[in-house]
Amino acid sequence: MANPELDIELEKFRELVGKALAEGGTQPLIKLTDEELAVLDPSGLEDVVAPTPHLATLSEEQREWVLGTALRSLVSRGAVEITNIAELDAVLRSEGADSNHLTADVDMRVTPEVSMALTLRRTAARALAIEQQTSSGSVTAFVFVHSPELMLIEQVTGGGMHIFTLASKAPDAARIVQALVDPFGTADRDGNTLQLDPSSLATDTVDRRLASVIDNALVVSQLIVLAEAPGPLLTTYATDRDVWAVSVDSPQAPTGITAQAVSGRTLEQHITKLIEQPAA
Description:
The protein is α+β, with helices and mostly antiparallel strands. It has ten helices and twelve strands. The chain has helices spanning 10-24, 34-40, 44-47, 60-76, 85-93, 99-105, 112-122, 170-181, 208-216, 264-275, and strands at 27-33, 80-82, 108-110, 126-134, 137-147, 150-156, 161-167, 194-196, 219-226, 233-238, 243-248, 257-261. A ten-stranded antiparallel sheet has the order 1-7-6-5-4-9-10-11-12-8, with helices on both faces. The protein has a two-stranded antiparallel ribbon with strand order 2-3.
């Protein structure tokens, strides 16, 4: 299946979307499942950093079945239009249909919302990647940064639901990310900043306050800037009482490591700074 193509040049597309966001502000875009994304953009499974946790659990035979179901779902809710739907329906109803032949024959048109999501997640110069880990599993999110006025946020649930949001300001995107990092809202006050030696992170010499938070964390999150040159790294530990942030200036050469109990405002500032990190 061919990838959907935009009718306008990318920079013009970004400009138009940015202007629309400036007027309407940060807003939800669309929700898509793993299998729907696989139908809409097959090569994106390899080219885009976002995971597909549900598809990863399926066998090849199961994938063929769910992709056919996903295409039906996209058509039924108007996310895509199939111009040769009668021909496609006949193939879907036939027994032993060749799935590769099926996808090659689909003549598909997508909605502007789908085009935005597929294009913006593929073409960002940099992104902020977030992984939230709890006893229930992991949730990931990405902030694809195109300009100070245009960001695409993609949240990926453990069940393979991709929730896309358009953000017009870095602080707006940071607040969405902060809800993952501090889901209980326990980041309420700033503590003293601790300067850490890189070697202390692998020994028992970590400050006892930080060690206690690490041992009792209910939510651990990793935030890292993805670009040509790896960006800063932020690790957060959220308990039922507070949130600590451990910041590393450069993952390649861990210097400037600090740790601090943070307030909600300071946590938002940390995340905003990562989103605004200039491209290499």
